[in-house]
Amino acid sequence: MLVVMNAHAEQDQIDAVVERIRELGLVPHPIPGSTRTAIGITGNRGPENRDTLVMLPGVEDVIVVTAPYKLVSREVHPESTIIPVADTEIGGGFTIIGGPCSVENEEMIIGTARFLIERGVKLLRGGAYKPRTSPYSFQGLGEEGLKYLAKAREETGIGIVTEVMDVESAARIEDVADVLQVGTRNMQNYPLLRRLSKANKPILLKRGMAATVDEWLMAAEYILSGGNYQVILCERGVRTFADHTRNTLDLSIIPVVKHLSHLPVIVDPSHGTGKAEYVPAMSMAALAAGAHGLLVEVHPEPERAMSDGMQSLDFDTFTKMQQSLKPVAAALGVEIR
Ligand code: PEP
Ligand code: MN
Q1: Ligand 1 pocket by C-beta < 6 Å: which residues?
Q2: What is the 30 CA–ligand 1 centroid distance (Å)?
Q3: Which of 75, 120, 203, 337 is the most buried (most CB within 10 A)?
Q4: Angle made by CA atoms 27, 28, 33, in degrees to the nearest 5
């Protein structure tokens, strides 16, 4: 359910509604808006408490939310969410996050951070803990990788996005990262999502490789329902019969997610195609489709990368791609960050 306060409701009236919701054994989630406050309610199994809430002073209406996900839905939160991260924001404009698949050593990650900052990119993504299909593939540098990421931020001021794979390492990653990435394989790892619902950093939640939009938004709901309202969704391609690309980048989900949810949604054209040569076209398409940004793999020497070299852009190609996005963004009236 959703309690909509009237536009002139006083803070003590809002507090009283929050208190009453708690007394009923439910969980209140106040959502301040530009004109009025709404209070999302989770934990209720039906509309039976509606009457007691609708009578409280300052309450305009109590709405039964029909979407299976509540806090994630636009029904509950009509205004689009913009998430401040490091020196930038995600939501509203078009925010580029770049970097290698894996942190491989100190020099390459700092070199990539310097390159990106010079190009105006404010967020560096690099994996220290890597979920690899084969146990024999490079698994990431772990804590050493986190140290290099921290150093890259220290030396360049760039914000850090990195993947968290399990509950045990979450605290360590939370200390270093500005945004915690949940990979496609972990989208429905519910203990991990519950842990991240208590994190004080935004979560970048990739779409499961076979997840429907409802399953994806329900996974996000796990994070919001525990009190972390900062979730960025990321489309990274799904499994289909097609084998001309690594995955099938499902850009059709962008307007759908924007209709159903207030959360920002970005696109990963690197895992979405698996081939660097197709990344610029799909990045342009993501921008045109209304995505709020990109997560794109960039490597100083893709041919030497320890993971995902085939789909990583080198610095020159990244620069050219960034240039070619500009006129499209201008035509759409979207700011590239
Ligand atoms: C990655 O971002 O490098 C990664 C492993 O992505 P995904 O979880 O989408 O496969
Ligand atoms: Mn990768």
Answers
A1: 101, 127, 131, 183-184, 206, 236, 271
A2: 33
A3: 203
A4: 155
Pocket test for ligand 1, best of 134, 137, 164, 184 (most atoms within 8 A of CB): 184
Domains belonging to the chain, first-starting first, are 2-63 (3.30.70.1140), 83-332 (3.20.20.70)
Instruction: Report residue 200 as tokens.
Output: 């004080």
CA of 310 to the centre of ligand 1 (A): 14
Cα-based torsion angle of the residue sequence 202, 232, 186, 305 in order, rounded to the nearest 10 degrees: -90
pLDDT digits (tens, 9 = 90+) for 122-159: 999 999 999 999 999 999 999 999 999 999 999 999 99
Instruction: Give pTM, 2 decimals.
Output: 0.95
Do 203 and 232 touch, CB atoms closer than 8 A?
Answer: yes
Tokens of 263: 């959360």
Ligand closest to 125 (CA) is 1
